[in-house]
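Course assignment 3, question 2. Fill in each field.
Student: A.L.
Task: Predict the tertiary structure for the chain below.
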Amino acid sequence: MIDLSTNEGKGGLMLGITRIILGFMFIWAFFDKLLGLGMLTTPEAAVINGGSPTAYYLSQLVSGPFEGMWNALAGNAFIDFLLMFGLLAVGACLMLGIASKLSTIGIVIMMALMFTLCIPPSDNPLVDYHIVYIVASLAIYFLNGFSYIGLEDRWRELGIVKKLPILE
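Answer field:
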């Protein structure tokens, strides 16, 4: 139990809560693209209706030095799969508090790539929310945020995780 009259243990609790909220953001993006929940993805553009989660964005909304590369990847089925798998895997790991190494690596790579979609960022000359996600995920990892409100202790006891430390 956390004593609310002191700051003891509250940092870890807040890291755990931040981790879960960040995970929910990835899970929500996955389900919105999969089902077309009407937030960013219309039902007609949903994956279950044959839509591509990358087609419009990578062909119309990117800018900067990597525009040509991203345009060429728009609508590619393998890129669509990687995006959807990444959103689901990272979101689930964050929400459950498992696979801290892989999920942190996944977030950093995914967000760094997404940062390159619009250079410079449209809302700030240097930093946008992708960089904030990277810094937050690294803080959660390095400050043991997976140890709070999650299944990390049980996860680390699994035989496969003991054999393959990258799964920790």
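Instructor remarks: Residues 62 and 117 are 5 Å apart (CA to CA). The first helix runs from residue 10 to 35.
Grade: pending
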